[in-house]
Amino acid sequence: MADSTLIQEYLDNPHSAERIKILQKIRESEAWIPISLCSDLLKIKLHHDEHIAILRASSTKQRIVFEDYLTSQLANWDQNVAAAALWEWALRTDCIMWHRTLPLSTSAHSTQRIRYTLADLAWYGGGFPLIQRLVHTEGLEDMSVAYHALMCFRALQFGVKCDRLLSLARETVENIHALPERLSPITWPTSSALIQIGS
Prior knowledge:
The radius of gyration is 20 Å and the shape is elongated. With 199 residues, it is an all-alpha fold. The chain contains 12 helices and no strands. The N and C termini lie far apart (56 Å). Helix 4 (48-56) runs parallel beside helix 6 and helix 6 (79-92) runs parallel beside helix 8. It has helices spanning 4-12, 16-28, 35-41, 48-56, 63-73, 79-92, 101-106, 112-120, 127-135, 145-158, 163-174, 184-198.
């Protein structure tokens, strides 16, 4: 049960930075905010850092209710809040409603960050169908090198075949010298492996 003193302290505080610290205290002490209050607070126009802190301090006592709330709201939140909500969903629920992430993966309104987070969390829900959708989304070629590397990695893991991704992997290997040094170690092995398997 949530500590009503901490919650009242949060609600009474006029400063966002201090409220975020109180929310961190709520999470650390495992006092938790009820989902109904969390839902109301997330409707208020606050900085995304505070919205994220509210999500992280929300109760999962009723895991299915928490999961239902998160997965039904993903498309309504800014990308920072939605990405954090996906991590909360993956780490603090049973991921029963993973199918709700599939439309988000192909929505024209989903940013690269949301798609990257979905691919990153594919083991928690979605798996093959999710990666299959992501590799066929419009604009794949325009995404970052890090996104391409993750997609190559996930395609290998889940056995997803895609000519577009194979072409991107070949292009990456051919132009590896042009990549920033920090990206070469993660991009080269995955792209090479995808080419070997896909050929």
